[in-house]
Write a structure and sequence with these properties.
heterodimer, A: 647 residues, mainly beta, Methylamine Dehydrogenase, Chain H, Immunoglobulin-like, 11-stranded mixed sheet, 46 strands, 7% helix, 44% strand, B: 166 residues, mainly alpha, Cytochrome Bc1 Complex, Chain D, domain 2, 8 helices, 0% strand, globular, heme (chain B), iron (chain B), metal-binding (chain B), Cyt_c-like_dom_sf (chain B), Cyt_c-like_dom (chain B)
Chain lengths: 647, 166
């Protein structure tokens, strides 16, 4: 161990070789015996794949990929008729987005294991995944937003999930939005949306703050003593609209924006909000029918924090801050100026005093700017290069990722002393400590999600998986235990004890509860019906046959809908369905559920269909035929199972 | 198929299999008597599971028959016909004359263990070659299904419950 520490210390802040400083018994400490389970679920954003992945810790094993904002060839999400509305937006169907951050639901500041929220960065949306079924059950589009990056972050009782804009843009009607780009200062605005989450998890936009034009990067809710406030990092307070890498890095300080959302609630109660026209989709998956509906919403309540005083304040923060993270007590707010050589730590108590005393250094776009020194607890000096994100262990320590110097730096929140450094491979982005963003971190492990992989694994051509490293943080020194590849390009991830999720995981859907209008709940209900040019096949599947498995009387010009009900009532027995030439791909049907594949035959003949999920010893026999006749044919519609004709 | 593994593990423990972890059973005598009990139960043709005795009544309970029919149509009819024709699984005609009511209900509610340990269930698997799926039927629902089978036997075979006294 001493040797390991020595190696890591001697590598300084720029590890260039793949020789990891891992400890001797690392393999044993991440080994999860065959047949046993991991200690934590890690819900990991997939970045540009638009998905989440579920990773077990400490093993690093990928347990599942959850489709959220992207169509998913594994289970037909976004392809089946039932799930397509989930990906509907005011711009129409968007099959692939960019998911950056995860927030797990909380009660009293602690994980409660109910839901995982994720953001679509490109076409702004927030999704909710039910941790009982691990399915995406709701997606809410965010109007007046562009680059939904500072999202979804959550309050300590899941009162609100926030979504804010990375790109300010002109808002309003067509005439107000059609303006020259170089009128940024006058016309461009940011928005911060507070999404209310009800007891069932359903989301609705409670209000939207319309802010000066700038970029919001990340956010964290206050907790404990700072509950009722929300903190957002900002950059581009220069209000640049071209060559931002230079022009948005001019000022010595940007801001952390402190939002008093309880104050906003007071204004709304007093009728100060302004209902504004907007167009955004709200998509909900029904648990019993498995049918998603998409509703187009028409207005949103907006508040102007320049006019309505005391909702927002700016705290100066050095050099384009990226992460803003609140410690478990709610007292300390850590700003990570990604271009700064220090980490400022603000005190909530001092901030409140400064606001009360109106200890302001001026205004920015009509909003008061608190004096930096007055809100400051202190600065972590020379932490490393490129601080991005900070997580906490619940023992008074903070862990900050250093993108440029590729390391994790452990420091004391109270004394601001650097306590330890561990190299990462390479260019670390987000960190994830189980319970790290909550009031009660579990603090056993830390995962570094890296942006660059290079030589860590066997090469696979120009495109590589992203790398992650798992560290044991239970002792004074961080110990590298494991290096594992990831799905997509993870940004933020949250880890939660398995005990909070595992017991609630449902194993199958009850046939009795299936309310799908085209369900065939039992083979006796299997049938084929024609409605004009539409042919609806009410099909059942069970090991190992479909019913019906012989269908005739379909004609060119028909649209055939296979509504397949999986009659199994046991865990881990999905059936698949595929038919040649289907432009909507395939479907996978969970036990007790019904899913629909639309198929438009394009030629005459007999076409085979089959089960795509290996279900039993007779899986290869799980198949059927459908006969397609010319449009003017008089072959009558009929269907059967097990019937044979005269020889 | 975690349920299956778990159930197999339990069964393995109970049977003191050579490859199992013997010390888990709680002493050799306890294991032996458990194994004996199991052997006895297999002999009496009641199968393995929580159903030890079933009280049958006459005439048939109509509400149970009705409920049993509904469950049959949803969860069983894809594989079992009401005649003696085997499709995926055996046809049901005459089943209450061949199998004791306890065996039937254990097969329905505890299928994975039955297929692994009960000689009659195993023989049927060899014949049909598709493992009967666990359809998560509750004991109460299984009893309703049994009532429906009794009614079906009266209709199709002209007699029922012939296996009770076997």
């Amino acid at each position: 161990m001493a040797a390991a520490a020595l190696v890591s210390a001697s590598m300084g802040c720029k590890p260039t070789t793949p020789d990891a400083a891992s400890v001797g018994d690392a393999a044993e400490r991440v080994y999860v015996k065959p047949g046993t389970h991991d200690e934590f679920y890690n819900i990991v954003s997939g970045g540009f794949n638009g998905q989440m992945s579920v990773v077990g810790l400490p093993s690093g094993r990928v347990l599942r990929i959850l489709p959220v904002f992207s169509a998913h060839p594994e289970n037909g999400y976004g392809f089946s008729e039932e799930s397509k509305p989930m990906l509907n937006t005011s711009h129409g169907y968007v099959p692939w987005d960019d998911l950056h951050h995860i927030s797990l639901s909380q009660t009293k500041g602690e994980h409660d294991g109910r839901w995982a929220f994720g953001n679509a960065n490109n076409t702004p949306r927030i999704a909710r995944v039910d941790l009982k079924s691990f399915e995406t059950v709701e997606i809410l589009e965010i109007p007046n937003s562009s680059g939904n990056h500072s999202s979804p972050f959550i309050t300590e009782n899941t009162e609100y999930v926030v979504a804010s804009t990375r790109f300010s843009v002109p808002l309003g009607g067509d005439a107000e939005r059609d303006v020259p780009i170089n009128t940024f200062k006058e016309n461009f605005k940011g928005t911060v949306s507070f999404i209310k989450v009800d007891d069932e998890g359903h989301m609705s936009i409670a209000f939207q703050l319309v802010t000066p034009g700038m970029s919001f990067d990340l956010a964290r809710a206050g907790k404990g003593k700072s509950h009722g406030w929300f903190f957002f990092s900002t950059y581009n307070s220069e209000q640049a609209y071209t060559l931002l890498e230079v022009n948005a890095s001019q000022r010595d300080k940007d801001f952390i924006m402190a939002v008093n959302w309880k104050k906003a609630e007071e204004y709304i109660a007093a009728g100060k909000g302004k209902m504004t026209k907007a167009k955004y989709a709200h998509n909900v998956m029904d648990h019993n029918s498995h049918i998603a509906t998409s509703t187009m919403m028409e207005e949103v309540l907006q508040l102007d924090p320049v006019e309505l005083k005391d909702i927002i304040y700016f705290i100066p923060c050095p050099k384009s801050p990226h992460g803003t993270d609140v410690d478990p007590t709610g007292e300390y707010i850590v700003g990570s100026g990604k271009l700064a050589a220090l980490i400022p730590v603000f005190s909530f108590t001092k901030l409140m005093k400064a606001i009360e005393a109106q200890d302001f250094e001026g205004e920015y776009a009509g909003i008061p700017v608190v004096r930096y020194e007055s809100a400051l607890h202190g600065e972590v000096k020379k932490p490393g290069l490129g601080p991005l994100h900070t997580e906490f262990d619940g023992r008074g320590n903070a862990y900050t990722s250093m993108f440029v110097s590729s390391e994790v730096v452990k420091w004391s929140i109270e004394t601001l002393e650097v306590l330890d450094r561990a190299p990462t491979y390479y260019s670390v982005g987000h960190l994830s400590v189980p319970g790290g963003p909550t009031a009660k971190p579990h603090g056993k492990y830390l995962v570094a999600y890296n942006k660059i992989t290079k030589d860590r694994y066997l090469p696979t051509g120009p495109e590589l998986t992203q790398s992650a490293q798992l560290y044991d943080i239970s002792g004074d020194k961080m110990q590298l235990l494991l290096d594992f590849p990831t799905i997509g390009e993870p940004h933020y991830a949250e880890a939660i004890p398995a005990a909070l999720v595992e017991p609630n995981s449902i194993k199958f859907y009850k046939l009795e509860d299936n309310t799908h209008p085209y369900a065939a709940k039992g083979e006796g209900q299997a049938r084929v019906e024609r409605k004009g040019k539409e042919v609806h096949v009410y099909m059942t599947s069970i090991r190992s046959h479909f019913s019906p498995d012989n269908i005739e009387g379909v004609k060119l010009g028909d649209e055939v809908y296979f509504h397949v009900t999986n009659l199994e009532q046991d865990w881990d027995v999905p059936h698949g369905f595929a038919i040649k030439g289907a432009n909507t791909a395939e479907i996978l049907i969970m036990p007790g559920a019904t899913q629909t594949l639309k198929w438009v035959p394009d030629r005459v003949g007999v076409v085979a269909f089959y089960c795509t999920d290996f279900c039993s010893a007779l899986h290869q026999e799980m198949q059927g035929y459908i006969r397609v006749s010319p449009a003017n044919s008089d072959v009558e519609l009929k269907y059967s199972l097990g019937e044979t004709g005269p020889q | 198929m975690k349920t299956l593994q778990l159930m197999l593990a339990i069964a393995a423990g109970a049977l003191l299999m050579a490859c199992g972890s013997g010390e888990k059973g709680g002493g050799e005598t306890a294991q032996k008597s458990q194994a004996d009990k199991l052997a006895e139960r297999l002999k009496d043709g009641k199968g393995i599971g929580e159903i030890k005795t079933v009280t049958l009544t006459d005439p048939l309970e109509e509400s149970m028959v009705k409920s049993g029919k509904a469950i049959y149509e949803m969860k069983c009819s894809a594989c079992h016909k009401l005649t003696d024709q085997r499709v995926v699984g055996p046809g049901w005609q005459g089943i209450t004359n061949k199998r004791k009511p306890e065996w039937i209900m254990n097969m329905v509610t505890n299928v994975d263990v039955m297929l692994d340990k009960d000689p009659t269930a195993q023989a049927l698997l060899e014949e049909c070659l598709t493992r009967m799926p666990n359809q998560n039927v509750s004991v109460g629902d299984a009893r309703d299904i049994l009532e429906y089978m009794r009614q079906n036997d009266m209709e199709k075979a002209g007699s029922k419950d012939g296996a009770v006294s076997m």
